[in-house]
Amino acid sequence: MDADVIVIGAGLAGLVATHELTRRGKKVAVIDQENEANLGGQAFWSFGGLFLVDTPEQRRLGIKDSLELAWNDWSGSAAFDRLDDEDIWAAKWARSYVEFAAGEKRAYLTDLGIEFMPTVGWAERGDLRANGHGNSVPRFHIAWGTGTGVVEPFVDSARQSAADKLVTFYHRHRVDELIFTNGVTTGIKGAVLAPDDAVRGAPSNRDEVGEFELSAQAVIITTGGIGGNHEMVRRYWPERMGPPPASMITGVPAYVDGRMLDIANDSGVRLVNRDRMWHYTEGVNNWDPIWPKHAIRIIPGPSSMWFDALGRRLPAPYLPGYDTLGTLRYLRTTPDIANYDHSWYILTQKIIKKEFALSGSEQNPDITGKSRKAVLQERFLNKDATGPVEAFKSHGADFVVADNLEELVEKMNALTDEPLLDPANIRAQIEARDLQVVNPFCKDVQVQGIRNARRALGDRLGRVAAPHRILDPKAGPLIAAKLHILTRKTLGGIQTDLDSRALGIDGQPIPGLYAAGEVAGFGGGGVHGYNALEGTFLGGCVFSGRAAGRAAAQDI
C-alpha cells in the first residue's frame, strides 16, 4: 500500500478530509492535477461566506434565528421532489447540515483559529414567500481572511502532516481511472503531467510525461464541479431554465472541469441531480483576468434597479440579492429576451459605495489581509467605493458612468451589437420608482425591501444605502453595469450516505470509496436541492469533507 487513504483533489473538502485522517494517525496521499500553488482550490478564491445559525454575531445585532427557522428556509429553498430516488440521501444530508450549522459548526471552525466579521450579511433574500426560497434573516458570516482564511488552517495542517511523514503530495498527477479489486476500491491510475509553474488559478499544461498507479485501503474523491467546463454546463443545463446561454463567463478556474464526475460514472458510481446547478446572473468580465473568461460576481445590496436586455425593469422577486435561480429562469424563459445573454443594473455612486461587494478573496484585500485599519478606511471612511470596486468602475468593460441618464443609456447601447434601450422608456421607469421614496411607506416592492433591509443593524451600517432618488444629482454620477451569466457550481453529483460513502448504481455503498465537496453535491448528491442559500458552499465542503475523513479513518 502506498497510503492508508488516497484523497483526490487538494481543495477545501480534500484538505478537511486529510486533516481528519491525519489527526487519527492515517497516512494520506493527496493527488491533484495542479501545482502546489493551487492548494486550497476554488475555496481560496471565495469571499469566505459561511451559513451559520443563531450565532453570537447574530445575537449581538439583534437577529433572532433558530434551527426551526433555518430548516424552514432550507427545505423551502431545496424543494426536494425526488425523495424516493435521487433526493433520498440529499434530504437527510440537508437536515444534518442545518443541525451542524446551528450547532457545532462555528466551534469547529473557531477552534481552528477561524474568526468572523462582526456584521452578518443577508444574502439570497428569497422569493418573498414565508415557506419558499430564501433566508428569512441575515446568516452570511464572512470569515476574517475571506476564503483564503478558511483554507489556511487546513493547508497548514496538511503541510505539517507532510513534515511528519503522514501526508505525501502528488502534484501534477491527473487521475484517469479508479481501481477495484473484487468489488473493493483499492487505488487509482493516471498520468503524470509536465511541471508547470503557472501562478495560482492560471491554466496549466496537460502534457503527459509518464504514468502512475497508487494503492490504498480507501479513496476519497473531492475534485469539485463543472463550472470551468462550459460544454458540460450546457450538456446538463435543465430544460426548466430555458435554453443555455450562447455566451457565458466563468467564475472558477479552468481546472474545475468535471472530469472526475464522468470517470466515477463510468466506474459504476451513482450520479444524481445533474440537472441542478447554481450560476449567477450578476457576472462582470474581470478587467485583470487570471483564468480564461475570468469573471467576478457582483454581490449586490438591494437598491440597484435591474433591467432586462430590452430595458424593462425586472419584476419582483427578481431583485438584486433576492432569488438567483429565479432571476436566471426569468431571463432565460421570457420569450423576447431569452436570445440575449445580458441584463443591466442602473445605480448611483451612493449605491455603489455602500452596496457593491465583489466576490473573490483577491477583490477584498482588506478582509483577506486581516487588516482592521484597511477595512475601516476602505468601507467606512473612504468617500468612494472600495478600491477594487472603483477599479472595475474605471477599467471594467461592462461599466459605464455618466452625469445624466440620456448619456448613460447612449453608453449602454454602445456595449451591445445594436441599440436596444430607449432612454425615454428607462427614464419613465426610474422616475416612477423615484416617486416611491418620498414617504417611509410605498407600494414598490423593491423600495419596501430596501427599508426592510435597513431595519437590520448590519445592513444599515455597512451594506444598504439610504433610500434616495436614482436621478438625484447629489447621489451621482449615474452608473450602469452590463451583467452576464457566470458559471459557478453544480448542485448534484455523486450520491453518498451520511458517512460520505459513495453509492453504486444499485444504491449500495461501494467499499472503500468516498466523496465530498462539490463533486458529491456538497453531500448526498445534492444537499441544496434546487436552490442554495448562499454562503453555504464552503460549509458544505467542510461538513462533507469532515464526514468523509472521519468515516474512512474508522472503516479502514
From TrEMBL:
Pfam families: FAD_binding_2
GO molecular function: steroid dehydrogenase activity, acting on the CH-CH group of donors
Domain FAD-dependent oxidoreductase 2 FAD-binding: 4-538
SUPFAM superfamilies noted in UniProt: FAD/NAD(P)-binding domain
Listed EC numbers: 1.3.99.-
Keywords: Flavoprotein, Oxidoreductase
This protein's name: KsdD-like steroid dehydrogenase
